[in-house]
Structures are given as structure tokens and as C-alpha cells.
Amino acid sequence: MVIRSLLISALLLACKAPWRTAAWDPTWESLDSRPLPAWYDEAKFGIFIHWGVFSVPAFDTEWFWWVWKGGYDGPVKPSFQKFVEESEVKNFAYQDYAHRFTAQLWNPDEWAKIFKRAGAQYVVLTSKHHEGFCNWDSRNLHHTWNWNAMDVGPRRDLVGDLAKAVKNTTSSHTNQKLHFGLYHSLFEWFNPLYIEDMKNNFTTQNFAKHKSIPEMYDLVKKYEPEIIWSDGYGGGHSDYWNVTEFLAWYATNSTVNQTAVWNDRWGRDAMCKHGSFRTCHDKFRPSNLTEFKFENCYTIDRGSWGYNRMAGYDAYETTADLIHLLIETVAFNGNLLLNVGPRADGTMPPIFVDRLVGMGDWLEVNGEAIYKSKPWNVCQNETASTDVFYTTTVDAKTGDKTLFAMIRSWPEDDKLRLACPETTNHTQARMLGVTKEVAWSAATEKVDSGNAASSTARELQGKTKTKTQKPGMELDLPPLNPATIPCQHAWVVALTGLKNL
């Protein structure tokens, strides 16, 4: 009996071990208290993929169906109606596009290689957009019949195939496995169940309980996404969507409970308030440091999230603009989720690949300033004239701290003037990708040795002027030419031995 009691006591103690998975309650208070899994903050850069039936017309916007039909009793946009009349048969229905969403040339492993080359650390695929088409094998769910990728169109589990390819890919930039996530639209524009609930002012929950929430459980159980990127809550409150109950299960009992993260688009009460990270609105771009972790979801094609055949060359962001955006986002405590829109046949437009490769080339040189970095609590960026942003890192073994000054425009006189760092006799500077040390001098100012405290005395002529050290420094950037420049678009100087680091 004594031995049995000791064994029972040991088991009870084991259950209270610090590595035991926490149980999260289905309340925002509990869920918001959950620490952000480290991998997400360290990743900094992910890929968003908008791919669905809307990729077939590929006309102007992924909201094609909504605009063409005029939304809820709105006017039909003439250009959309004309496009359909000139390209399709009479009495054509949007659902007919699904038969041409074939993914016949799609190679998920090739996509994963592109994302790896880009330096991305996670990938978020559209599992279902507002049109309601399911990109996964959802045939076990009653309300998705004949409107999913297995029943019509690709006749292939798009989510499952890409999940496998991404999870089997290791980043050459960080030597970490890529993480996989799923975008999921809570509502569906023209689903009769949703329209009925909406007309009832969301006092009924037929759509949420029988369609949307079962889909999310299905996605997590089948594909184990570490990110659930929710969107399209319509006018519903998070209670209507039964969100906290799902997220508590996701964070406590799912197979990815310890690494799972989610955004903030769960209802009109949750937007920009509740989530592992916050998106607030599309292309959310704070102008200063945020207390919360945010994500800037941004499009390479400025006008559309899905593939748009109508886009001209000027519709796309340049590689320099995207690198500058990544720098700014990370300095202010964010991640950049950069969106691409593949074609309906599964091929990736070359202009998207070009931009992603450009990002990866820059990160190959300067990833040290991005991955696993933290915003500098002293100063996140210099004045607009110098166009410099800061991040910091701490060496896990030595505890040594490094400040990275990320330069988005090269100074004309090759001298970089920084006001924020306070130098010491041990300060060192180096440019990433360049072997030689960067010469620097402490910032100084002239003062009146006679009476530095008196403005009147400073105005007097003939007083002896001396220099005194002040916060800041001036760096002589190394002379570079096309053969020696380490990268394009932005450059990084690493600083150690600072007083205020």
C-alpha cells in the first residue's frame, strides 16, 4: 500500500510538471493571456496565397463574384457584366468557373522551393475565401458538397498537398522548418444559411454552427496548421461564431496546441483587440512601435489579392519597396505577410517570383538583422532624412548585444549620421556582407567654455570653443562598387559596444 501511495503521489506531481500543456479557457481574457509562441515572433516574414475559383476569371479582383452580382442588392458594375457577356455563354453562373479551376500544372514542391528562396519562414494558404469554395478534401462535411476541390475543378486536395510540401521544406536562411498556416473565411457572401442569420441580426446561428466552425475543426484535425488566419466575419459578433470555444480547443487540445497562433478577425468585437497577433486592417502599417505583436498583410499586386490578368507592370510593388516595407515592419514589432496570387492552372506568375527572389537575395546577406530580432526600445528609426531603422539581437551563448542600423537610402557623402546610439571606447561597427570594419567617430558639438549654461554668453564673440561628446555617431561607409556591394536596395551596419544598448 505504501508503494502504491508513493506511485500515485509521483504521478500527481508529474501532472503538475512545468512542461505540462496549459489549459486555456474559452474566454478572451484567458486566450489573450497566452504567451505568443516564440517561432512566430522570430519568423518575421511569411507568404500569403490567395487562390480559388476567383483565379479563373482573374478580372480586377478576387471579389469578382460579389462585384459582378452587385453584392446585397447593389448595382452591377458595368465592366464586370460586359466582361462576362463577352467571354461566357448566355445564362452563365459563377459556379461554372469551378470546372476551369483545374490546377493542372501545379507543383506544390516547386512553390515550396520559391518560398524557401524568398527567405519566408511560414506560408498561409487560402483554404476558403468568401466565395465558399473549399480548397481541401471537405467531402465529410455535409454543407460543402460539389463546392470543394475534390468534387469539382482540381479534384485534388490542394491544402493537403501544399501542407506536406511546406512542412518538408527547411529554410536555407535560418535552418528551420517552414511553418504552415491556413486562411479561412468565416462568412460566405451568398450562402443561404448565412444570409438568413444576417437577416435575423445574428440571433440565429445556423451558418456558424453547421458550416463555418465545423470547417475549422476539420482543417486543424486533418492538416495541423500552426496559424489560423481568420477573415470575413461580416457583421457577426465573436459569440455568434463560437470563436473562443474553438480557439480554446485549438490552443489546448489540438495536436499543434503549443505552437498554434491566430489573428484578430473573429467578429466586430475582436478586430484589432483579440488575437495572438493583430492585423487590424489590410496593409496595417503603424508609424511607431506597437505594444502588441502585429502582422502587415500586404500585396505585391497593389490592386488585387488574387491573380489579376488586367494588371500592368506598374501595378506591382518594386523589390526595393518591399524590402523597405519589411525593414519598417520588423522595426515596429511586426511580421510581414506578403501575398501572391497564382493562376488557376497552378503556375506562379514570374513577376511574383522575381519579387520573392529579390527579397530572398537581400535576406541572404542581411537576415541577421531580421530573423529573431527585437525592436530597439530606445529608438526605432532616425529622422526621415536619414531613413534608418533599428533592430537588436542578443547572442544566446554569450549574451552580447548587437544593434542593427538598416539604411534604406545611401547618404550622398558616404557618411551615415546616427543620433540615437551612444558610443563607448569599445564600440565597433561592421557592414553586413562586407569584411572590413566601418570607421566611425563620436558625435560632438561645440560649446562655450566660458559659460555653456548661458545663452547670452554663447552669443558673445571671441570665446574659446571646445568640442564635447554627445549621443550619436558618424560612420564612414565603405567605398563600394558594383563588384563589391553586398546587396541592393538597403544596407545594414551592425553596432556593438554601445552605452545604451
TrEMBL record:
Residues covered by region (Disordered): 447-474
Alpha-L-fucosidase C-terminal domain ranges (all copies): 380-446
Gene3D superfamilies found in the cross-reference section: Glycosidases (3.20.20.80)
Signal sequence bounds: 1-23
Family per similarity comment: Belongs to the glycosyl hydrolase 29 family.
Role summary: Alpha-L-fucosidase is responsible for hydrolyzing the alpha-1,6-linked fucose joined to the reducing-end N-acetylglucosamine of the carbohydrate moieties of glycoproteins.
Protein name per the record: alpha-L-fucosidase
Native source species: Seminavis robusta
